[in-house]
Amino acid sequence: MDSCLVAVLWSLVPLYVTVCVIFAVFADADMTLLWASVAGQRPERKLKGLVVWVTGASSGIGEELSYQLAQCGARLILSSRRENELQRVKHRCLQSSNLQDEDILVLPLDLLERQSHAAKTEAVIKYFGQIDVLINNGGRSQRSLFLETNLEVYHALMELNFLGTRGSGSIMTVSSVVGLAGAPLATGYSASKHALQGFFNSLRTELTDYPNILISTVCPGPVQSKIVDNAFTEVLDKPVPTVGSQEYKMSTRRCVHLMLVGIVNGIQEMWIAQQPFLLFYYAWQYTPTLAWFLTNKLGKKRVQNFKAGLDADSAYFRKAS
């Protein structure tokens, strides 16, 4: 190799290291997604007029998805169990966009009642004539120790988070960082999200002969929402005793914007999280031994806080920070 070219390449090493350091400090998503957010297709151009079905649309990420999709001009099907909350979301969507009443269909849906899904889908097809994008966002989290958790809780988590998401068409599924790596107090939740990852990764491979069908998986870290408020504990229908601060979590608006950037740019898997959580994704991907060390160290403290009746999440994530 020419000596001048070698010298040029070596001169670029400090720049490369600097970029990596900046990325480690400021990035809130994987590099593919961040690049698409700068130079890729814009959601407001690609989503206008499309029919998008959002499950879990009554709160959190699903609610924010509804607002941003409406502002992009997408026609919407809003689903969750709580019809009154869906009507509230629809009203706000209409207020903040140019959509008309007939552009938004409120369709109550319980993901656990899988026998009803075919009829619900038929209702959507009859109303809009098509479904362009299905966003599987419905589900619940968990805050309980394995040894204290009833089997019914694990059954409910798998039914809701995994089995409740199966469908057809262009699909975006909201998984989690715990779909890539386990976390204490979330054994069942993590198992259900790992099942999602395996199922949709396999489905994506089976559909390689259909390149126009996008199977996209989103792995967000901590995001501001009510997911902890509604989390399963060791017994079905027992509420979480302590819901801590949301201040350390990523804003729902930013997370949803990146999700929409990802889907319009055909990104198959998205990692979305503030630092230092994003670094954990990379640690599990490339240095699992280090990742196990950090997870065990922080996880032990999280369990101790939980047993002491403290806000396990806030203490855990402040420690990580």
TrEMBL record:
Recorded GO molecular functions are:
oxidoreductase activity
One matching Pfam family: adh_short
* Coiled-coil parts of chain: none
Where does the sequence pass through the membrane? 15-38
Q: Which UniProt keywords apply?
A: Membrane, Oxidoreductase, Transmembrane, Transmembrane helix
Tell me if ATP-binding is a UniProt keyword of this record. no
Keyword Methyltransferase assigned to the entry: answer is no
Q: Which InterPro entries match?
A: NAD(P)-bd_dom_sf (IPR036291), Sc_DH/Rdtase_CS (IPR020904), SDR_fam (IPR002347), SDR_family_member_7 (IPR053011)
Q: Which family does it belong to?
A: Belongs to the short-chain dehydrogenases/reductases (SDR) family.
| Protein name as catalogued | Dehydrogenase/reductase (SDR family) member 7
Q: Which organism is it from?
A: Mugilogobius chulae (yellowstripe goby)
